[in-house]
Each structure stands twice: as C-alpha cells, then as structure tokens.
Design a protein that fits this description.
The chain is an alpha+beta fold and 443 residues long. Helix content is 36%, strand content 19%. The strands form three sheets. It has an eight-stranded mixed β-sheet, with helices on both faces. Strands 13-12-14-15-16 form a five-stranded mixed β-sheet, with helices on both faces. The protein has a three-stranded antiparallel β-sheet with strand order 2-4-3. Strand 15 and strand 16 form a beta hairpin. The longest helix is centred in the N-terminal third of the chain and has 17 residues, at 31-47. The chain is elongated. The protein starts with 30 loop residues before the first helix and ends in a 6-residue tail after the last helix. The mean pLDDT is 93. It binds histidyl-adenosine monophosphate (HAM).
Amino acid sequence: MPRKKKTVATKTSSKKFQLVKGMHDVLPEDEKFWNFVTETVKKIASDYGYQKIDTPILEFTDLFTRSVGAETDIVSKEMYSFVDQGGDNISLRPEGTAGVVRAYNEHGMFNLPQPVKVFYIGQMFRHESPQSGRFRQFYQFGFEAIGEYEPILDAQQIVIGYKILQACGITSMVHVNSVGCQECRPDYINILTDFFKDMKSQLCDECKKRLLKNPLRILDCKEKKCQELTANLPQTVDHLCEECRDHFVKVLEYLDELEIPYFLNSRIVRGLDYYTKTSFEFWEGEDESGRQKAFGGGGRYDKLVEQLGGRSTPAVGFAAGMERIINKMKDNDFTVPLNRKPDIFLAQLGNEARKKTLRLYEELKQAGYYVAESMSKNGIKPQLELANKLGVRYSLILGQKEIIDGTILIRDMEGGIQEVINYEKIFIELEKRFNKQGEKTTE
Ligand code: HAM
C-alpha cells in the first residue's frame, strides 16, 4: 500500500529585525527639524559665500591615519575599517575635513581664487559607546575655508557656527583656545609633561600612555579624575610664540567686535591631530559637563593640506553634530516654522473621477499651483479632513455627478461654502479667487 505523504507545515521566519547598535532612524515626525537645520545651514552658507561640496563616505584608511592621527581615539579605536574585494584598506569616514582637503588637492583647487570656501552635510561613522547624543552613525554639517591665514577667517567660522545654533534657538558658549604651532607647541608639551610627572600614578591607564606619547591628549580625557588633575593647568596662551599669540589676540578682538560670547579654555585641544593655532568648541555653557555634549568644534589646520600631498596652504574650519542640535531643539520646544501650505486640495469620488483628477492634478501643478491630494482614499470625508489638517484654502471635489454634468465643486475650506463650476472654467475661477487673495504660490 502506498504510504501516505506526510505534510510538513512550513513555517516562515518571523524574526523582528532591529537597528544595528549606535544607528538611528530619522522618522517622518522629526523630518521638519532636519529640514529646518539643513535649510538654515544652506542659507547661512550662501550668506557667507560658501559652496556645497560632497565627498564620498568611503576613503582610503591612510587618509585618516595621516590627518586625524594614528594615536587619536578616532583612528585607533573608532574607525569602521575593512579590506575591500580589491585588497584596498578602506574606512567609513569618521569626519569630513580630511576628505575635503583630499578633494582640494586632487582637483587642483589651489588654482581657484583663495580661500576656497566650502560646506558639507553628511553621515560620519565612529564606533563609540552609544549614549545620549552619541551615535555610531551621525550627521555633521561642516564649513572649511582653505587657502588663507588671516585670523578674520577663524572668527568668521566661529560666527557662522554661533549663528546657525542661534537660528535653531540655541544660545551656545564658544570655548576658545590656541594650540600653537610647530614652533611653540613642543615647549608647551614639555611644560605639560613636567606638570603631570608627579601626578602620573593618579592618571587613568590611557592617560599614563598619553603622557609618554602625546600629553596634550590628557587635556581632553573623558575621565573625571584626569579632568580634576588639570584644574591648575599651565595655560596654553601663556606659552605661545609671538606669531601664534598675535594671531590669537586678533581672533579674540574680532569676536569682541561681533559681540560673540566666548570663554578662554586651555583644555580645548580637540581630539584630532591636525590643529594649529585657534581651536574652539560650541558648548551649552561654561561648565565642563558641556564637553561631552558639544554641539560642534573646529579650528585652524595650517599643515594639513601639505601633509596630504598638497602645497603649503593654511586653512580653518569647523563641524557640528546635527543629532545633538536637533535633540536640543526638541528639549527647548523649538517651534519649527510651518511649511508653506498647499493652495488647493484635490478630492475625488469614484473610479471615473479618480482618473480625471490624475490629469487635473498635473495641469494644476503646471499652472503653478501647489496642490495636495489623496487619491488612494475613497470617501470624501477623510479627504476633506486631510485638507483641513493641511490648512488648504480651497478644495476641488469631483464625484460621479460632476463627471456626468461636466462640472466640479469648489469648496472654500474656511467658510465651508461650496459652489458648482463648469469644469472647463476651473482655471478662470481659481485665478479669480487667488488673484483676489494674492496667495498663489509656485512650488
Ligand atoms: P569633532 O569635534 O570630532 O570635529 O566633531 C564635530 C561635532 O560632531 C562634535 O562637536 C559633535 O557635535 C559631533 N559628533 C562627533 N562625534 C559624534 C558622535 N559619535 N555622535 C554624535 N555626534 C558626534 C570634527 O569632526 C572636525 N572634522 C571638525 C573640523 C572641521 N575641524 C576643522 N574643520
């Protein structure tokens, strides 16, 4: 007797996938904040003559080792690096400056009028321990002015960052310092080494190593006990060479002139190796607790262009973290100005009407109206509810009766008055209404 085939119930996998640690989604409800910050950055960039640049997310690992520095936390611990199928050592960019400088050299931008002023907005990647305001993929906007030494440019970078934050409803405190140059920094490092020598045993393990390799890094250690040891730190500004001191004094004078509040802070040495002279960060206040939540930071990097194979070219820039800015905007209950409301809502009922509104939608847009619709909805009520929500002034309503009669309804959403108009006269009727109000906008 043939054996009965056993039926096996096939079970489809129902694994619920989750975000990779340190990543985050930007949901539609937050999109208004992202758009607002992006538009503000673009507007201020254009006011100050900065043009947009987009560099790739992937770069050769070497680029970051040479610029940000092999010994920095960013390069030694936090980079997403891999060998690709072609055997190249590649990294996801942890920051934007190195890529911009590579592009400046690679595309011969030194032949353009200097300084070359560019800005960027994009994702950066650092394998840090995630916490509030710290992600493994995060967005930065950044500004770079490459090709001039003048301290006015340093002040301008600070003003740009300050103004963007201000436009987002954030009053920040600028923490500013000068890390000197190749001439005076070694002397300061010697002074620091002496300063920490007797406290070596009290430093964290990482800082014990830093004391040998690069004592400056101790100044931005995240450990509380190391921070406390730096309370009576020898001030960098007291040990600058004449050239660096003059440069720094001028930056401060410009900030005074522009009435930008700042705080001199010797511990702003930055976590990246390429800085020379001015270094700065935007914090919430003067307090040290602001360091971990800094909205942005930057400084001068006069040696980097040359270090990456270009000519000797001074430069200055900064970048800011968009998540941190947006979190703060939300904490502050910042009201994002409303987007422009649509002029017309196009509502339909029935198959024929839906088909006809498809064409009408395109014609209205072509005539310069900003039109909203919800063609996937069936009832008139939910469509008009949506029109109300959007704050639309007029709805055009097309149903089966109107199709047969060759008409369309126009509803004033404020007063609720509805008129039947000849379908052929839609544009004349709209023109009358919008001209009267002078409201029609173009997308
Ligand atoms: P940075 O200080 O490393 O500088 O980063 C700038 C800002 O990016 C920080 O102040 C912070 O707001 C944000 N940020 C950094 N890491 C994270 C993270 N893991 N999660 C969320 N936000 C973060 C630079 O990147 C330099 N390239 C700035 C610069 C431009 N210097 C000269 N030109």
